[in-house]
Amino acid sequence: FRYGGDEFFIIFNRIDMDKSVEIMEKIRKKIEITKFKYKNEILNFTISVGIGCHQEGDSVDDFIDRADKALYESKKTRNRVTKIC
Fold it and tell me: Which has the closest alpha carbon to 28: 20, 40, 37, 17?
């Protein structure tokens, strides 16, 4: 779902952190190598991903805050996946 102007959430249920990172790395790499043509111009896209894990006792805000911090770490250098647990 859309969380901000250009931010989206994907929630994986019952999946470990390593598998989440693996899935998002595949998506990131696919976006990076895909070329888009627009008005006779080739455009390249990247994606910055932040992964936060839900910990026992977390509120929704705790979980979202952790994922948001990971996202902003990725945005610092762009085109990477960062996880924070």
Answer: 20
